[in-house]
Amino acid sequence: MKIAFLDRDGTINKDYPDKDWKDRTVPEILEGSIEGLLLLRELGYEIIIVTNQYIINEGIITITQYHDFQHNLLKLLKSNNIEILDTFYCPHTDADRCNCKKPKTGLIDIALKKYPNIDLPSSVYIGDSICDQELAFQFELKFFEINGHHFNTYYHSINEVVLTNREFL
Ligand SMILES: [Mg+2]
Ligand SMILES: [Zn+2]
């Protein structure tokens, strides 16, 4: 199966400066996300979210808060007929020296182990930061950049990315 690997914060939902994540459990969906995700599904992609959540181990949010936010996000997407195949997250800081904090490969390694029928050459990666791009590069995944890393001063949405790159998808 072909996968669209997607970053979460700043790609699907709004991102915030780290300290502003405290107490947040309700995602704000970015403009164009729903339409873009629906298009990816129509094009035959299964969607896997890969997300760095070092704010957990930094103590800014609790693990429960992470799960609440993620649950609400999935519920919101589902109410728009978008099924997400799976989500893999890294709670670690650099000091933890894990293998999964993007751009390290752990999150995609786990996905490949769990879903051996993933076809990487036909899969893609969509994200908004350099760690996403570097991770995609290591698996030779086609990378499409969301230009939303500046807290939405200018936003280039999933929908625009998919519409612009239809011939490559
Ligand atoms: Mg991001
Ligand atoms: Zn990790």
TrEMBL record:
Q: Which UniProt keywords apply?
A: Carbohydrate metabolism, Cytoplasm, Hydrolase, Metal-binding
- Cofactors named for this entry: Mg(2+)
Query: Which SUPFAM superfamilies does the entry link to?
Result: HAD-like
Tell me the superkingdom of the source.
Answer: Bacteria
**Name of one Pfam family that matches:** PNK3P
Name the Gene3D superfamilies on file: HAD superfamily/HAD-like (3.40.50.1000)
Q: Name one GO molecular function term.
A: hydrolase activity
Subcellular compartments: Cytoplasm
User: What family does this belong to?
Assistant: Belongs to the GmhB family.
Identify the PANTHER family for this entry: D-GLYCERO-BETA-D-MANNO-HEPTOSE-1,7-BISPHOSPHATE 7-PHOSPHATASE
Per UniProt, subunit arrangement is: Monomer.
The protein depicted here goes by the name: D,D-heptose 1,7-bisphosphate phosphatase
Its lineage opens with: Bacteria, Bacillati, Bacillota, Clostridia, Eubacteriales
